[in-house]
Amino acid sequence: MNKTIFFTGAGISAESGVPTYRGRGGVWEQYNYEEYACQEAFDRNPKKVIEFHKVRRKAVGFCKPNAGHLAITAMQGATIITQNIDGLHQRAGSKTVIELHGSLWKNRCNYCDETQEIIPGEFYYKTLCNCGRYFRPDIVWFGDSLKEHNIRQAMHAIEHCETFISIGTSGAVWPAAGFPELAKSHGAMCIEINPEPTELSYMFDECIREKASVAVPKLVKRMLEK
Ligand code: APR
């Protein structure tokens, strides 16, 4: 088994054209999450929240995996733990992807647990479940809990990994922000790829201050040549 973990955040998809969440041009600078990304907003005005996600799906549907996503697929057997909801790792060809924050490409009904898969780039899908209620995106919104089995699976993989590579995440959101420390405490070699220092940078054995599309292919090549 390959004991490498790629732990990814919005930064790896930034060069594919998917905006990051924080910083200049970030999603939360343009949109108030209290109006678009929490259960209360959906309960108040489901159509407004559905429309916001429709616009995001449309934008992300046109984005393609970049050299960073593609390089990761060369490390066969590695585990990807992502905070991203864009599905770009899977579209690049990665198989083992733990989506901590859910997926833009899934809907669910809070009442009857019905789910709906949405094909990236397919913009016509049902907004109502068979029970008559609105589907909500199967995304971890503000105030939602992460899925227990996802956290357990992620933590198990981290506790047994040899190399933990964090790519393009500010490390601001828990419990994901605790993952580098978990990896370190279990003896993994920890590497950060981010053009900017983060609050967690001090914890890494190596920090690569380059964009993901440049740094990930070089790092994967280096590791495969070892
Ligand atoms: N390559 C690598 N990193 C980059 C690049 C790039 N080309 N461009 C930007 N970055 C870095 C930024 O410096 C920043 O540290 O990506 C990071 C993006 O941080 P955030 O926008 O906070 O994204 P993320 O850490 O994934 O956010 C976590 O917050 O709002 C929630 O649910 C949302 O999953 C998201 C979570």
Describe it for me?
This protein has 226 residues and is α/β, with parallel strands linked by helices. It has 2 domains: 1-17 and 65-101 and 145-226, TPP-binding domain (Rossmann fold); 19-62 and 104-139, SIR2/SIRT2 'Small Domain'. It is 35% helix and 17% strand. The strands form 2 sheets. The chain has a 6-stranded parallel β-sheet, sandwiched between helices. It starts with a strand and ends with a helix. It binds adenosine-5-diphosphoribose.
Structure at a glance:
The chain is of the alpha/beta class. The protein has 10 helices and 9 strands.
Morphology = globular
Q: Write out the CATH superfamily name of the largest domain.
A: TPP-binding domain
Mind summarizing the main beta sheet?
6 strands, parallel
Arrangement of strands in the largest sheet: 3-2-1-7-8-9
H/I helix tally:
10
Strand content: 15-25%
Tell me the structural class. Answer: alpha/beta
CATH architecture of the largest domain: 3-Layer(aba) Sandwich
Distance, first to last CA: 16 Å
User: Structurally, how many domains make up the residues?
Assistant: 2
| Rg | 18 Å
Low-confidence stretches: none
Look up the CATH topology of the largest domain. Rossmann fold
Number of strands: 9
| Residues in helix, % | 25-40%
